[in-house]
Amino acid sequence: MKYIIFLSVFILVGCNDKKPNSNEKITIEVKTNKEYLEFRGLAFSKEESSYSTPKNVNGSIEFIVENGKQIKKGDLLVKIKSSRENNKEKKLKNRLFYAKRRLKSEKEKVAKERLKLELDVLEKEYAYTIKKMEINYKSGERDSRVLKSLDLKTKLIDEKLFNLTEKMKSYQILADENSIPLDEIEKMKKQLKNTKLNHSLQLLDKKEKLDGTIGKEKEQLLLELDLLKHNLKKSKLTLEEKEKLFPLNIEKRELVVKKRESGLKKIYETLKASSVMSKVDGVFVRVKHPWNGNYIEKGTDVWRGMTLGKVLDYENISVKFRLPEKYVDLVKVGMKLSFYSLQNSDKKIEAKVKKIDSIATPVDPMNRKSNKFHWLFIEMKPQSYKFLPSETFICKILLNSHKDSIFIPKELAIIKDKNLLIETSEGQQKITSFVKGLDYYILLNQKKSLDINYAL
């Protein structure tokens, strides 16, 4: 696109479609010449929202709003279809399902193993208690009531034996005197003998109940008790160790589930972000692809950070111009300018230079050697003219005004040894005093016109 048009007031004489020769000439009159700089501009919204492909989103455009469509806050602008994210979602859903199933299985396994260990401990506690009771039973009576009963029985038998012994002595005296029948004496002897036997049995029973099991049987019972105690302690220790491991095993599975849920949450956020919603009211404007220069449309591949479109507020539109980089030093803030719309060339608007961007923008971002320009912003008085979206303008800035001057196109003169050489009707002229313009050599303080040969 051509952005620069340089104007000067001069008259071409004798120009036709024939090949020029040395006899053809142009006459340049002396007058006040003005040197203008022209470049293009466009209407833009002072309040616009730019929308880019969200972070972690890559794919192709599934839906995009039509260019120039009026939209409201919250409306869907662009929807991006990402096969990669959809595949990730399916994989993570499957992984989450199996992770939850493994967690459930681990909890059931822990519950069963805990129950088994607790049952084992209870069984061994029961066996140990029974063995201990058996040893206590066989280790001798310790109940004071039983011991008192045994003592009472022994005492009664002792008293009976004493009485029978004394009675037997009396019977013996009577027998010596033949005062008692012999069968009575025999009966008494037999009764005394039975009482002594009962006395011995009572003493033996008391001794057995007091002493309990003795010898190898007692040692065996004590060994069995120690073994049961050892096994019980071992089972309790195993249960304690497992109780420490059970939460760790479950926590490990829970962490895997949380990790899968977190990954799936990120995928959902990415998929949600792939639907770009409008944050303001306005008009949607599509933008061009940074590589091929085509407008972004359905099916276009996009990637993170790529601009998808803009929402413009057309109630607040202004104008900015593209100032070529090579002329940026010629234009200063505050300089007056005028511009008109290519869609309405009859309307001329006056303004001033408000700001010039310090950073140059390439015309073609994909070409390193592309020409560059600086955005130039203007300041103007309130006016009735309402700018239209995408309207383009031509801006004209007066750089210089020279009175009594001649503008010579650079194609019609050459510089040699810092002098300007011109072929005139009077021969070659060497001019030492001149000024360089944009596309002209400027001769100042001239009195008469100048005839210049068209072909050098």
Overall description:
Strands 2-11-15-13-12-16 form a six-stranded antiparallel barrel. A four-stranded antiparallel beta sheet has the order 3-10-8-5, with no helix packed on it. Strands 7-6-4-9 form a four-stranded antiparallel beta sheet. It has four helices and 22 strands. The protein is 39% helix and 29% strand. By secondary structure, it is α+β, with helices and mostly antiparallel strands. It has helices at 83-138, 144-176, 182-211, 216-273, and strands spanning 25-28, 31-45, 48-52, 59-64, 70-71, 76-81, 275-277, 282-286, 301-302, 307-312, 317-324, 336-341, 344-356, 361-362, 372-379, 392-409, 414-416, 419-424, 427-431, 435-436, 440-443, 450-453. Among the domains are: 47-74 and 279-315, OB fold (Dihydrolipoamide Acetyltransferase, E2P), CATH 2.40.50; 85-131 and 233-268; 140-212.
